[in-house]
Structure formats: structure tokens, C-alpha cells
Amino acid sequence: MTMMKSKINDKYKVDPAVRKFHEETIIADLHADTWMWEAFLGYNIRKRHTSFIPRNPFFNHIDIPRAREGGLNITGQGVVVNTLCKRNYLQRGKNMTERILRSIELNSDELELVTSATHAREAVSRDKIGVFLGVEGAHILEGKLEALEYFNKQGISYFTLGHFNENEAVFTSNDLPNAAKSLKPFGRELVRELEKRKIMVDIAHVAPGCVRDIMEIVTRPVIASHIGMKGVFEHWRNLDDWQLRAVAESGGVIGIMFQPHFLTNKFWRCELDTVVAHIEHCLEVAGEDHVALGSDFDGLITTPDGLTDVSKLPILTQRLFRRGYSNRILRKFLGENFLRVFHQVCGSEEEAFEKKAVN
């Protein structure tokens, strides 16, 4: 048993030069659901947790000590309201938002709410972990466009139009009988209002027919915060090549998720190279300016071998280095692509955007 553990550790041992590069690079993960578990189980984000079940199923993926160890600088966190309880979506969404904001404030020596790329870079320069928030599912608005005002004022930066159930705005990707249906009238209003308010439109979880309509409406870059590639594994949750190109043409970015069930035909597990295959397909189809991290850590997922929690992110960087990717491409993938979109959509009018080469 000791020899087996040693072999596993050697397999994922990170070279010092790679770790140094990783530590010096801004690492942004587009989506996780860590505070959902604080709400359900009292999960303490400040305490270092350990894995107690293989592949860390469902949660226990992010806390502040392991985020520091993994080099995570910026994390997108979802405001999640379970649709199994079909009432009070809006109030529960407000409660969840306030819970996250209170926790950020209580841990202000380590965390900072960020609402633009400039703000995020400044937080990182102060050695804070930047947290940007996203509403996950338009059901939270209960069909009331004016309800968006509250979340806008609280600093929400992205809005995932769907989750796992049809809502007033969209059909969702798991709703296969309605996959080709069009965006609903409220969804059209909502997309336009999100753009007006400089909130990133997120097409993760959205049915293909609705994605098609969204891409015809938007005038700013969109994101797919946590997603896989149908070109690698045909699954309702993933994006096809047309959708990848459409996101790229908008100037947007696609976050590659870590959920084995959506990446491969093995429900419980997948290899690290499976995640790499999805990244590489996105690079090939969408281009190097449009791929990013979107782990979905703590989002009821099991984790790939080698990526059991946030502290293991340098292992992914090393694997990509060994696949021959340059520093430039890795910096884009690990954070700069997202920060570009964050700036273009959420930056203030006073912030003049200058595209800088990533070396």
C-alpha cells in the first residue's frame, strides 16, 4: 500500500519550475458552489479540510488554505436556489447572496468581492482572493425583471440563465424534448437587461435552441462558465462546435468543468487527460483566446483523478506544459482570457480597454 501511494504521489508531483510559473500567474476559476455547503452544512471556508472519500464527491473542494496552496486568485461563486422547493425563489436568492457577502466580509483579510477585472487585479495585488458572484438560474427572479435590481446592487457579475429546470426565461440543456425550442420573451428581455447593466450572460445549462437565440441578441461577449465539449463526449450538458464558435465570435470565454459524468462515459471518475482533451478541443475549435477554467468545484460533482480539490490545480498546469503549450497560452487559459471578458463586459466606462500581449 505504501509503495502504491508513492507511485501515485510521483505521478502528480509538480516540477518546481512549473509550480513557480503557476504561482506567478493569475489563476481564475469561472464557477464553483462553495457557499452552498456553508448554507446546508455549516461548511467552514476558513478551515483546511481533508479528503475522506475517494474523488471527494459532491463538495469539500475549496477552502481558503487549499485555495492558497493551489494558487487560486479569483473564484466565481454561484448564488444557488434549489428548485425542488418550488417557492420563495427570490427571497431565498437574496438570503443566499447575503450569506456569501457576510462570509466575504468576515474573512476580509483573505477574500474580497470583485466586480470588474480591474478590481480583481487590484485585489490579487493586495494578496486577496477575489470572489465574483453569479446568479445560477433565472427562476430566482420569479419572472420579474425588476428583481434584477437587487442582485445588480449587491455586485453580481454574471447570470446563468438556466439551471436544471425550465424557468420563465429559458429551457435547460437537460430538458431534451424541448432542446430546440426558442428563447422565451422574458428571456429576451432579460438578456438585453443584463447587457444594459453590464452583467455577463452565461449560457451554461441552457438548451441549444435558446443558446442560438441568445447569440443572435447579444452585443457583448458571453461566457459558458462551466461546461464540457460535445466534440469529445456527446452529452446534453456540453456545447457543440457551432456553439463554441458562436461564443468565440462574441469575444467570449468557455470554462472547462471537472465533472466526470459530463466529460466521459464513466459516471464516477475520469482521468486527468480527459479534462485535458476537453481543453484541447476547445482550443482547437474556439481558439486560444476563448478557453478558461470552470471547475464547478463544490457543485455536487465527483472529481477527476489528480484534481481532487483546488490545491491540485498546479497538476493541471504541469500536464498542459507537458503537452507542449506555451507560457502565453497557459496564462490565457489560467486567467487572462476571463479577465479580458470580465473587463469588456463589466468594466466601467472610464476604464479604457487596451488589449495587451500575454507573454
Can you tell me about this structure?
The protein is of the alpha/beta class and 359 residues long. Helix content is 41%, strand content 12%. It contains 14 helices and 9 strands. α6 (117-125) links the parallel β3 (111-113) and β4.
Provide key terms for this protein.
alpha/beta; six-stranded parallel sheet; 14 helices; 9 strands; globular; disordered C terminus
Q: Write down the secondary-structure element order.
A: HHEHHEHEHEHEHEHEHEHHEHH
Instruction: Write down how many β-strands occur, each being a DSSP E stretch of 2 or more residues.
Output: 9
% residues in beta strands: 5-15%
Radius of gyration: 19 Å
SS-derived structural category: alpha/beta
**Distance N terminus to C terminus?**
43 Å
Summarize this, please?
By secondary structure, the protein is α/β, with parallel strands linked by helices. 41% of the residues lie in helices and 12% in strands.
Please outline the helices and strands:
Layout: H1 2-11, H2 16-24, E1 28-32, H3 34-41, H4 64-70, E2 74-79, H5 89-106, E3 111-113, H6 117-125, E4 129-136, H7 148-153, E5 156-160, H8 185-196, E6 200-202, H9 208-217, E7 223-227, H10 241-249, E8 253-256, H11 260-263, H12 272-286, E9 291-293, H13 313-322, H14 327-346
Parallel strand pairs: 1-2, 2-4, 3-4, 4-5, 5-6, 7-8, 8-9
